[in-house]
Amino acid sequence: MAVIGGGVIGLAVARELTARGSAVVVLERDGIGSGASGVQPGGVRQQWGTRVACRLARESVAFWREATDRLASRVPLVLRESGYLFVARTQDALAELEANVRLQNEEGVPSRLVTPDEAAELVLGLRAEAIVGGAWCPEDGYFDQPQSVVEAFASGLDVRRAEVVALRPSGGSWEVALASGERLAAAAVVVAAGVETSSLLAPLGLDLPIEAEDRYLFFSDPISERLLEPLVVSSELRFAAKQLASGRVLASDLAARGDEQAGRTRWRATIRAAVEELLPHLAYVSYPLLVRGCYDVTPDRQPALGPVPGLEGLFVAAGFSGHGFMIAPAVARIIADAVAGSLDAVLETLGVQRFAEGRLVPERQLV
Q: Is the overall model pTM greater than 0.70, yes or no?
């Protein structure tokens, strides 16, 4: 079998298939975690606005709590459950959070609405008068060294540095053509190549609407004082911020797109305005480091998962819109099941054919 893509999704799928007895080769153009998996900050949350996203998150967080043992890691992989707080500045925004919390609770997510005063108790320094309420889940959190998690998934796998240029069905199996001119035969192929997935599948007649979307994070220098324990998100202010275990504070203008030289000053202004409004004790934190990442996004901000209709032995796991790390364990199990011929109910919702059939499942609680 071949898995195309050496990010956390491809590696998690390859690991699961290998554990089930398959001989798997991972083909990665640039290196393990060289794409989005190498720059994401390791966040893991269960607060979503669709049932399918909540279910993937619930299954994955059970894995993440036991990550060290499950991945046989040589270094501790600790999910720090510091919580996520989504704040609302208007009643309309609060009503949307309330609807999300109701759905999350039905799916077993222990989130709840909080009053402004309760929010200020959870996040020291938060201006209660700046919000009308919020949504909180204490089980949300992050991995301090997410790259170590990605590397742990890769341990023991056959990972080869190679660029895949074409896929061709070949007598009931697949031929994988490499830029070097080499041809590999595979009984099945899983394409987990992020934004490159569409171009690999287009010659086979599958129009998969996955596009690249720039994302940017600002980081402070390490600060010894603990200033911001939970992650705070304000969709209305286009703002998110968190202090990592290293002491660095990360902050983001959630709408930051395009050229970083042209946008850097404007994005800093967005962060500064949000800090003044919500978290004034962060006003003197500076952010000398700007890190660019890239989401592979679909029209509904949900992944494309599962078998490709009409092309036996070809599977997709791409279009994660920034939350691939969070749900990688559940995705790996679902794809491995599909390869074995067992289709999880999640694939009825997130299957690749939903785009052509107009069955989008918009996820709006995004960061």
A: yes
Residue with tokens 């998996």: 37
- Match 């043992």 to its residue by tokens: 69
285 and 153 inside one domain: no
Looking at the structure, do residues 26 and 96 belong to the same domain, yes or no?
no
For residues 111 and 11, membership in a common domain is answered with no
DSSP state of 222: P
**Separation of first and last alpha carbons in the chain:** 34
pLDDT tens across the length of the chain (367 residues): 999 999 999 999 999 999 999 999 999 998 887 666 556 788 999 999 999 999 999 999 999 999 999 999 989 999 999 999 999 999 999 999 999 999 999 999 999 999 999 999 999 999 999 999 999 999 999 998 889 999 999 999 999 999 999 999 998 899 999 999 999 999 999 999 999 999 999 999 999 999 999 999 999 999 999 999 999 999 999 999 999 999 999 999 999 999 999 999 999 999 999 999 999 999 999 999 999 988 999 999 999 999 999 999 999 999 999 999 999 999 999 999 999 999 999 999 999 999 999 999 999 999 9
- Residue 211: name the closest of 335, 292, 301 by CA: 301
Domain of residue 192 covers: 2-64+146-210+298-357
* 365 within a domain of the structure (yes/no): no
